[in-house]
Amino acid sequence: MKWNRFVGASLIALLIFATACSGDGTDKTASAELPLIKETDHGLFYSPDLPENVNRVITILSEAFESNYSRIAKLFDYELSDKTSIYVYTDKSEFQTMMGRATEGSYVASEKIIKVYTPANLDDPETREEYTDQIVHEFVHAVIQQINPSVGRVKWLDEGAAYYASNQLGKELQRRAVFFDLPTLEQLKSPDYFDEAGSAAYFYCGTFVQYMADTYGADALNRIVRNPKQIERILNNSFEKLYEQWKIQMSKPPSSL
Ligand SMILES: [Zn+2]
């Protein structure tokens, strides 16, 4: 009977934990701290995995993180007060159980922790690029959501800035030749657009943020990150007009974007 009670209590604890970690990361429940595997100039890398199994992947991720750190902090004109905590899991199902949803990476704003799944083997160059890009992407979220937590609720800006500033956008622009599935204005502004369109949503929101940065300057982008509701005043333009101008820009050859 004791065993049954123990199992029951453990299941309930597990359910509470999984529920607390799901959703948009706004919960206040801190997850249990993991062993520290590596400390770098600006990062603290933790993992539930044995150091000998995760050392190599964390070395690769930490190098990508450090080599992009200053560029991103400078781009958003922000000095982080603490080293960034990063949890690395090499077991995808363990990671998704912990997160409570099917994701491979997230910045958990309430805990100020980047949490990522990364395969233990990054020997394949494409896989390596995908997951080093992911950690840089999550770091952009960490910076802009620490500047202004409300950015997390303006999805086109939050994801668009992450996709743009991580250079994932630049790489995709080199591969993509046609833009046939541009979002409507309503789609662009809707958080559901990301569920509906998947990777295309990241791409188009990235180009929208890039268009603003190129047309109005990094300073204007920074002011928008700090005060998204004032975007029309900051750009001296209506959102509708901005959208129409971006659409015209997207109809030009990709090389000119
Ligand atoms: Zn993101």
From TrEMBL:
Annotated keywords: Signal
Record protein name field: Peptidase MA-like domain-containing protein
Domain of life: Bacteria
Signal peptide residues on this chain, from the entry's feature table: 1-22
